[in-house]
Specification:
Jelly Rolls; globular; nucleus; membrane; 4-stranded antiparallel beta sheet; lipid transport
């Protein structure tokens, strides 16, 4: 009887999990999104080749004009280290929700490793430096330059490499909480830099709270 109960519980758990995934997929396929990857890429491309700090300042100003209430205020903008997949970079989160994020990303040193495999599509437009990507199932890598946009599809995995001084504007769309495991794993099990982990969770929470506040304001509450 215990075997039957265990089997039944596993079946129920699997069925509930599949149902939850299908419901999430349906919701994400039909919901209205704030941002569009082509618009973000087009905006970032305007400033490709410029000094990255000046370019980022212009991108933030323009995003606030286009998407009022969806970009974190200056006092909440913070550069936070990211250790994941063997590489190390730094990000500045501008927007975050359950299904979208916009951030500035880059590295001041040469770095590379595993891209991660996500339940989200991620696009990066290079402002400065170079980015090399080696796609799964191929034997050659591709090198990208300022103005180029790289798309990392849902479920894909690649080898990635940034040269020192590479900075980019990144947009992600999908089930964003699913990306946090990869983003925090190296911090948890390798560097044990728990202060950085706190900063990461804190700024994501601020992004979520901003979206809730904007949603309530738009609803007249």
């Amino acid at each position: 009887m215990s075997v039957v109960r265990t089997t039944l519980r596993l079946f129920v758990f699997a069925a509930v999990t599949v149902l939850a995934v299908l419901l999430l997929q349906h919701w994400m396929a039909n919901k209205q999104y704030v941002f569009n990857k082509d618009d973000i890429a087009k905006l970032a491309k305007q400033y490709a080749g410029q000094d990255h700090e000046q370019a980022f300042s212009k991108v933030v100003v323009e995003l606030r004009k286009r998407y009022p209430g969806h970009i974190l205020p200056d006092e909440d903008l913070q550069w936070v280290f990211v250790n994941a997949g063997g590489w190390m970079g730094s990000m500045c989160l501008l927007h975050a929700s359950l299904t979208e994020y916009v951030l500035l990303f880059g590295t001041a040193v040469d770095t590379g490793g595993h891209s991660g495999r996500y339940w989200a599509e991620i696009s990066d437009t290079i402002i400065s430096g170079t980015f090399r990507q080696w796609k799964e199932g191929t034997t050659k890598s591709e090198l990208y330059y300022p103005g180029d946009t790289i798309i990392h599809g849902v479920g894909e995995a690649t080898s990635v490499q940034w040269s020192a001084g590479t900075w980019m504007v990144e947009y992600g769309r999908g089930f964003i909480p699913s990306t946090l495991g990869f983003a925090l794993a190296d911090t948890l099990f390798s560097t044990q830099d728990f202060l950085t982990m706190f900063y990461t969770v804190q700024v994501y929470a601020k992004g979520l709270l901003l979206e809730v506040g904007t949603l309530l304001t738009d609803a007249g509450i």
